[in-house]
Amino acid sequence: MSKQHHITLLPGDGIGPEIMSVAVEVLNAIALKHDFKFTFTEALIGGAAIDETGEPLPEATLTACRNSDAVLLAAIGGYKWDNLPRHQRPETGLLGMRAGLGLFANLRPATILPQLIDASSLKREIVEGVDIMVVRELTGGIYFGQPKGIFATETGEQRGVNTMAYSVSEIDRIAKVGFETAQKRGGKLCSVDKANVLDVSQLWRDRVTAMAKDYSNVELSHLYVDNAAMQLVRAPKQFDTIVTGNLFGDILSDAAAMLTGSIGMLPSASLGEAGKPGVFEPVHGSAPDIAGQDKANPLAQVLSAAMMLRYGLNESKAATEIEDAVNQVLDKGYRTGDIMSEGMKAVGCQEMGEVLIKLITDN
Ligand code: IPM
Ligand code: MG
């Protein structure tokens, strides 16, 4: 009997359902060519879950995720839910899922695709060949540190508080992912912190520095986060793998993504302990303004499915086949609106999926 991979699908909001449906068809097409099968369970998250159950991450969703081999997420959020109290916002569901599944390592690649290079806002010679992996810590730092909240001071004035805190074990486990990722890539790791000001960053830097002796084949450097932001837009090719904390990683990964000019093409992986399910999702948001109009670019979702095969299900061959098909679709000139340029063939979300599946099936 062929192997079964059990996947929880979280289509979420906005363009989520339409791009997810393309990814599922692509996964089914790839499974037909390999010795495995998928079973899918769909669950609610974000605004869709709020509308149905009143909460952004129902317990049933977390349970379904925990019981699967991997989770494929599309996108969450939209204007409709922006003004709800914080505990009911779609973003809170996402943070709850990261914490609930222990997804401490977030891998965000920013790769320039040669076919789309002119979509970058930077000059061709600056971005050509850029291939960066941001390894962002995802379940600690200022996003989760205590105390947090809005408190009244002794004078009765309100004071908003968040705490940036990292323990040694939290730093060590993400640093390890950083070093190992660099080892598999170009062998260069840049750790980003604010050690000139923050104690939490000094500890971070000390631990990363200490770990370097276990990875003699990785060239380690350190940058302060402000300088890192500057270097990313000045000379992005100096970077191979970046490891950083939750907040700095949030900001730098958006900057890195934008270098490519095509955020609609970028996947990501959030991973916890070995053997536990990871969550795979596009970097882009739910794009409520174009939802339901067949205009969305499904390729980041499809590439997230490929990342799921590689990092979550140990099916790298199938992952590569999907990535190759995406490349060929671009080579053939098919473009959704977000990546359209002169002389290319404009297609919608669904047609992009059909072209992809035909390529996978014929390859
Ligand atoms: C991201 C997003 C989230 C974050 C939001 C939606 C909570 O910006 O995944 O980068 O800040 O982590
Ligand atoms: Mg972000």
Automatic annotation (TrEMBL):
Keywords: Amino-acid biosynthesis, Branched-chain amino acid biosynthesis, Cytoplasm, Leucine biosynthesis, Magnesium, Manganese, Metal-binding, NAD, Oxidoreductase. NAD(+) binds at residues 78-91, 285-297. It is found in: Cytoplasm. Substrate binds at R98, R108, R136, D226. The keyword Magnesium applies. The record marks Y143, K194 as: Important for catalysis. GO terms for cellular component: cytosol. Its cofactor is Mg(2+); Mn(2+). Pathway: Amino-acid biosynthesis; L-leucine biosynthesis; L-leucine from 3-methyl-2-oxobutanoate: step 3/4. GO terms for biological process: L-leucine biosynthetic process. Pfam families: Iso_dh. This is 3-isopropylmalate dehydrogenase. It comes from Waterburya agarophytonicola KI4. The lineage of its organism: Bacteria, Bacillati, Cyanobacteriota, Cyanophyceae, Pleurocapsales.
